[in-house]
Specification:
Blueprint lengths: L1 H8 L24 H9 L11 E8 L6 E7 L3 E4 L5 H7 L9 E3 L5 H4 L2 H11 L3 E6 L3 H12 L6 E6 L5 E2 L3 E9 L12 E9 L8 H6 L9 H9 L4 E3 L2 E3 L1 H4 L8 E6 L6 H6 L1 H5 L8 E7 L2 H4 L2 H8 L6 E5 L9 H13 L23 E3 L5 E5 L3 E3 L8 H9 L4 H14 L12 E6 L13 E7 L2 E7 L3 H9 L3 H7 E5 L5 H4 L2 H14 L7 E5 L3 H11 L7 E5 L12 H13 L2 E8 L7 E7 L4 E4 L7 H6 L5 E5 L7 H6 L5 H11 L4 E4 L19 E3 L5 E3 L3 H5 L2 H7 L1 H25 L32
Parallel strand pairs: 3-4, 4-5, 5-6, 12-13, 13-14, 14-15, 20-21, 21-22, 22-23, 26-27, 27-28, 28-29
Antiparallel strand pairs: 1-2, 1-16, 2-3, 7-8, 8-9, 9-12, 10-11, 16-17, 18-19, 18-30, 19-20, 24-25, 25-26
Helix pairs in contact: 6-21, 14-15, 16-27, 18-20
Bound molecules: zinc ion (2 copies).
């Protein structure tokens, strides 16, 4: 038990951290759209002299759990290349501000590149960003239409699509050329997966700097109005005549910085190799180049990179070009904070909080003739001011450091020891000794994927070879990868069905990736692929159909079971659905799979699963306290209930149609549930929600990657003490906020002469229900 030994070894260090207060200084809120106002002030006539600073940074290095995405920075603009699931979460964790994105470039209409785009767009809309331009494959327009089937009209943000056939795009930083590349010979059926779009980006020439001292030495009228035209001329490379003397630009000006280029190209399979290698536009940037190519970013599997034709093509960019590879052989940890918290939690209980899998480097094909650099999360290549690789931001995941940090926290080690003693002395878990069902929480946060908590998903392993997913928010597959590592294909192979509670983005936008990755998993397991039953509101069908018909084939992976058909007493509309339900029950050994409407948005469901061995599992989805759920869930063995908000925020909970902690616990009591696990916490409680007095030995808090079975209830409910020690700083900060809010509320009530005045000092707004469109000006709350 290495962890426990280190607890003892590092005990003496515990006192040191005592004096450091956990309170952080609060900064005044920044204006997220400051850059747009600056741009407006400059006016249309403003002509930039080319950017001083430009770098490319790897957001996602191409691994199976994160995909490939690239962020490009200049002092004027920010760009994103590809936006798969989880990219927004990584940008949040690594402080790459989405509010500053002007342009998103997509290399191909495939879920691996666009899966995170729906969530990203919702976030950009909330930020108030007036416009964002999407460039790439022709299906993008249709993709946006498809998103609207669940997001509602995307009012308030101007989403322009610049198809690949549009002329080049130019802004303050660079000119971007889109190059369509059509696959040969491998034309698959469907929505033209044979097209990828590559991007050649040419930085503007940066004009030289005017050398003031030199100019003074030469007697030029520095400091007077007469100098302006002289500066303008020499910066443009023209010589000037001053008092009869010709002055060459190089005498008083540094040389201009040439217009370097970089290339982003996806080559997903061998069918694209020839079209890439023979492409005429690329040829213009090879050999005697129009602009020297400083960097080529390859989103391509190893087998493409190893192809001799592709290698020759790479060589033709010349010895000065650098090559960056983003693909599945990358072994970089991306979700550092997730690893950190799990490492620390596993000190408390390594079975309930099993350490996450770290990606291991896959076989690389050796003998590349062109030196290439493998992508790592946050690796940078700087184009200006100096061309160089920069590794200072690259993530270093050091579990020893996380452990040491936790062990230095006051009272942590003591509370862990007390906890272990209490668990040892407590009732022996699970008399029947069954490990199943095993519940793995994959996403326990609401609304937006954040660094500590991803959005809703819970895996129920009914037996070693049968499982169900309850909700499936963006990034669920990535969470599965990080939880199971190399086992992920086996786990996908056990998946018998997915339950989608309602159509808010935080509950279903991870579904398509699960379907696509399951197809791959079954193939690798040598098993036939059959459609996966998905129990969901019928409205899901519209999204799946639109995406299928306009973007990428997907429907053959799904058999939709309308959630309403599983309501008590509901009529099953067709023998086909009847058959699907029957085989689902049989596959999972379930006696019953029931749903009920809950109090959230329209068409929101909870569900209850009754196993033939007698256990009953109830899941609330998102809801206010709901009598129908109480009735359906009577005597549940386990209730998994949302607890979005802390006690005291009942009014906000009603506005957002969610539950508070005590309300969720109350539902469990009324249901006579054996145990209640709380989940779907507002992201304002980043690490841990505020504990309420209602906590007892029948209540537990879910964390991402937490793994429990019914026998763990005593072990789970006792976790609160060590959790309080681990998160003391955060809890203190949150309680401080709560107190301040209380004072503000009281003051506002005094001023307005009524009780229950506006919160946070802001004028009270009647917020629209989540599924209704909202006016762009209102301080919006994302439907969650
Ligand atoms: Zn919701
Ligand atoms: Zn939600």
């Amino acid at each position: 038990m290495w962890a426990f030994r280190s607890v003892l070894l590092l005990r003496s260090a515990a006192g040191r951290a005592m004096s450091q207060g956990p309170a952080r200084r609060q900064r005044p809120p920044k204006d997220p759209l400051r850059h747009l106002r600056t741009r407006e002030k400059r006016g249309a006539a403003w002509e930039p002299g080319g950017p001083n600073t430009v770098y490319l940074q790897v957001v996602a290095a191409g691994g199976r759990d994160v995909g490939a995405a690239l962020y490009v920075f200049s002092e004027y603009n920010r760009y994103l290349f590809n936006c798969g699931e989880g990219v927004q979460r990584l940008m949040q964790e690594h402080k790459l501000k989405v509010a500053r994105l002007d342009n998103i470039f997509l290399t191909r209409m495939h879920w691996c590149n666009v899966g995170g785009l729906c969530g990203m767009i919702l976030t950009l809309k909330e930020t108030g960003l007036p416009k964002c331009v999407l460039s790439g494959p022709p299906q993008l327009e249709k993709y946006l239409e498809a998103i609207k089937t669940f997001s509602g009209p995307l009012k308030g943000i101007d989403l322009a699509v610049r198809p690949h056939s549009a002329p080049e795009y130019k802004d303050e930083t660079m000119t971007v050329f889109q190059i369509p590349i059509y696959s040969v010979g491998q034309r698959k059926r469907g929505r033209d997966p044979s097209l990828v779009v590559a991007f050649v980006c040419k930085l503007h020439v940066k004009k030289g700097n005017f050398l003031v001292l030199k100019a003074k030495e030469l007697g030029l009228p520095v400091g007077t109005a007469a100098i302006a035209p002289i500066i303008a001329a020499v910066k443009d490379g023209r010589s000037v005549t001053y008092e009869g003397r010709e002055i060459l630009p190089e005498e008083i000006c540094t040389p201009p910085d040439p217009g370097l280029a970089f290339v982003v190209v996806e080559c997903p399979d061998e069918g694209f190799i020839r079209p890439v290698c023979e492409n005429a536009t690329f040829k213009r940037y090879q050999g005697n180049a129009e602009a020297p190519v400083a960097l080529v970013v390859h989103m391509a599997p190893e087998r493409v990179l190893a192809d001799s034709r592709y290698q020759q093509w790479m060589e033709r960019f010349g010895p000065a070009a650098q090559h960056l590879v983003l693909n599945e052989s990358c072994s970089s940890v991306h979700n550092l904070r997730s690893h950190k918290i799990q490492t620390q939690l596993s000190l408390i209980h390594p079975d309930i909080f099993p350490p996450l899998a770290t990606p291991c480097r896959q076989e690389e094909v050796p003998a590349s003739r062109v030196p290439t650099v493998r992508g790592e999360c946050l690796l940078k290549y700087q184009l200006r001011p100096r061309r160089e690789w920069q590794r200072d931001a690259v993530i270093n995941c050091n579990p020893e450091e996380f452990i040491a940090e936790a062990l230095e926290l006051p009272n942590f080690q003591e509370s862990v020891q007390e906890y272990r003693k209490a668990v040892r002395d407590g009732p022996t878990p699970a008399e029947n000794g069954s490990q199943y069902p095993e519940i793995v929480f994959l996403g326990t946060g609401s609304a937006i994927p954040m660094k500590i908590r991803n959005v809703s998903a819970t895996l129920v392993n009914i037996s070693p070879d049968r499982s169900l997913l309850l909700d499936c928010g963006e990034g669920t597959f990535g969470q599965l990868c990080r939880h199971y590592g190399d086992e992920v294909d086996r786990v996908l192979g056990t998946l018998a069905a997915v339950f989608v509670s309602h159509l808010h983005a935080d509950h279903h936008t991870g579904l398509l990736n699960i379907l696509l990755q399951r197809e791959r998993a079954l193939a690798s397991l040598g098993r036939p692929c059959h459609p996966l039953p998905v129990v969901a509101p019928t409205q899901l069908r519209a999204w799946l159909q639109q995406y299928h018909h306009q973007c990428q084939r997907i429907l053959h992976h799904v058999s939709l079971i309308p959630a309403k058909c599983l309501q008590k007493g509901a009529e099953v509309p067709s023998p086909e659905v009847e058959r699907l339900i029957g085989s689902l029950l049989e596959a999972c050994d379930l006696g019953e799979f029931q749903t009920c409407l809950v109090r959230h948005c329209k068409h929101a469901f909870g569900c209850a699963l009754v196993h033939t061995s007698g256990w009953k599992l109830v899941y609330s989805g998102d809801t206010m306290p709901c009598e129908a759920l109480v009735q359906m869930g009577k005597d549940a063995t386990l209730l998994i209930h949302e607890a979005t908000l802390e006690d005291g925020l009942e009014e906000e909970a009603v506005e957002k149609t969610h539950s508070t902690t005590s309300q969720a616990i109350g539902v469990g009591v009324r249901m006579n549930a054996g145990f209640t696990m709380l989940t779907h916490f507002s992201q304002r409680y980043a690490k841990v929600p505020l504990f309420s007095p209602g906590f007892n030995d029948k209540v537990g808090i879910a964390f991402d990657h937490m793994k429990v079975c019914f026998g763990d209830s005593a072990t789970v409910s006792k976790l609160i003490a060590p959790l309080q020690a681990l998160f003391a700083g955060d809890i203190e900060e949150m309680e401080g906020r709560r107190e301040k809010r209380g004072v503000r509320l009281a003051r506002a009530a005094l001023l307005s002469g009524e009780v229950g005045g506006p919160e946070d000092g802001a004028p009270q707004q009647k917020r629209a229900l989540p599924e209704q469109p909202q006016s762009p000006q209102s301080k919006k709350v994302r439907a969650q």
